[in-house]
Design a protein that fits this description.
Elements (H helix, E strand, L loop, with lengths): L1 H34 L3 H30 L5 H31 L12 H25 L2 H27 L4 H36 L20
Length: about 230
């Protein structure tokens, strides 16, 4: 009976990991859409967001059902709790995809990028995709060292986010250029939140290894990272 339960957990884990990996790949499409915006790219991002949201809800429901029918031991419960958290962060990432899509549909290829934020934002989005893949890898492999490095990767994303905001704030060019820069700021904010979710997924990987709940911190900012609200 327990072997069957363990196998069910494996299948559920593989499903949510595959969905998060797909989200990381979608971020590469977002990076391209930022520099070459099209209605098709925006629609694809929205569709991936819906897929990820539905997958998160489905995984959460499956976990409740399969756990309620068993008498799980401590290690099983640890995995169930971690998977519920990963599914929740998947849903939060899906929400950010929806917000990104709202901005992508308003970008036009003919707009002049006076603040030169498109290249920075594209690079930031690629970094977030890489960070998300690393988080999934750390979770799947139960790799504590990799999980702990992801918070350091997040610092680079945060730095680019601040640069984009500062560039938009300093822009004194025509209104259409300021609008483009502000839309880039909003996308950057969503990408930054996705990076935070990647860190949270990495924290779940660490939890599986250590059986201790902890929040990763930046050495230069010793206070715990604020928890993201649903």
């Amino acid at each position: 009976m327990r072997a069957a339960f363990a196998q069910q957990l494996v299948k559920i884990e593989h499903r949510i990991e595959a969905e998060i990996e797909r989200a990381a790949v979608t971020l590469a499409d977002v990076a391209q859409a930022i520099q070459i915006p099209t209605a098709g790219n925006a629609a694809e991002v929205a569709e991936e967001g819906r897929r990820l949201h539905q997958a998160g809800r489905s995984v959460d429901a499956q976990l409740v059902v399969v756990t309620a029918r068993q008498s799980p031991v401590a290690c099983d419960l640890r995995l169930v709790v971690a998977l519920i958290e990963v599914a929740r962060h998947g849903a939060l990432i899906a929400r950010q995809f929806g917000l990104i899509r709202e901005q992508l549909v308003s970008l036009t290829a003919c707009s002049t990028d006076g603040a030169a934020t498109a290249v920075k934002l594209s690079a930031m989005t690629h970094l977030a995709g890489s960070q998300l893949l690393h988080a999934v890898t750390a979770f799947a492999a139960r790799d504590l060292a990799l999980a702990q490095r992801i918070d350091v990767e997040d610092d680079e994303i945060d730095a680019i986010n601040r640069d984009i905001f500062a560039a938009a704030l300093a822009l004194q060019d025509p209104p259409e250029q300021r609008e483009l820069a502000l839309r880039h700021v909003l996308i950057a904010r969503s990408v930054e939140r996705i990076g935070d979710n990647a860190v949270d997924i990495a924290e779940q990987a660490a939890f599986l290894v250590t059986a201790e709940r902890s929040e990763f911190t930046d050495a230069s900012h010793p206070k715990p990272r604020p928890r993201q609200r649903a």
